[in-house]
Amino acid sequence: MKLRRYILIVIKKAKLSQYFIPLLAIFCFIVLTLVYIFYNPKPQAVETSAQSQAYVALIFEDAGMDEQEIQKLLEINLPFDVAIIPFLPFSNKIALMCSKNNKEVLMHLSMEPEDQNTVWLTPRSIMNNTPDDEVEKVFKDAMLNLPHSKGFSIHLGTLVCTNEKIVSHLVNLAKANNMIIVDSTSSPRSLFPKIGKQKGIDVIPHDVILDSKNELKPIQDKFKLLFNKAKKKGFAVGIGHLGQEGGLTTIEAFKEVLKDAQRENIKFVFVSDIAKLIKQTD
């Protein structure tokens, strides 16, 4: 009897295993499928690596008075432009430092503003009544003072930029010397874009002024605004200032937002590269 009972148990187990193993396999397959569907992390709609690249050019204006600020700025190993006011104590030295560190130099030409406030005018500023021959002499001397300049931008200048004669002369000089022009006046009355177009030279506008107060957080927010503008149209130009307007604080903000730039696929380029991109989109 014992032997018979044992045989029956073996037979029952054999039948059970015949159905149990396939059922177990089906059950495991269903569980794994459900786990994959509901718990497997989905790729985000826009991965950082898949974002289209946007280009940002940064211009640091008002260089020429403080060598230490420039040394701090040049520690950042990325492309950017330094707009140097000519004929200041460290103008020539800073231009050479920038070239040695593979940064792009712009002549930041001082010009008369509309409000007649001459406090921030510098030696050999172009005034609204400056004759053509003197404008040309200032321009060419500035080129000698700031070797390897890729172009020029405007320091103050809201009055001069409405003077058709002087603007035309400056545009001609830039074109003759294969230079770019950055209209940094923020004046809606500026004639540089119009006359530049007439003469076949692109005048580059800026998108964001990064600083006006020496405070870190607002400047960081302006950098983020600049990055957003670049992502919308493909490229953007930001202007920061050395000295009282921003100086070391703006440099620090630049360093702080580098991780954001990398995450958002922002590539820093020279403003001359932006000029090429503008030509491609025209």
UniProtKB/TrEMBL annotation:
Q: Please indicate if the UniProt record lists Transmembrane as a keyword.
A: yes
Q: Which InterPro entries match?
A: Divergent_DAC (IPR006837), Glyco_hydro/deAcase_b/a-brl (IPR011330)
Instruction: Enumerate the transmembrane spans.
Output: 20-39
**Record bears the keyword Acetylation:** no
Q: Give the UniProt record's GO annotations in the biological process aspect.
A: carbohydrate metabolic process
Query: Which Pfam family name is an example for this entry?
Result: Polysacc_deac_2
What is the name of this protein? Divergent polysaccharide deacetylase family protein
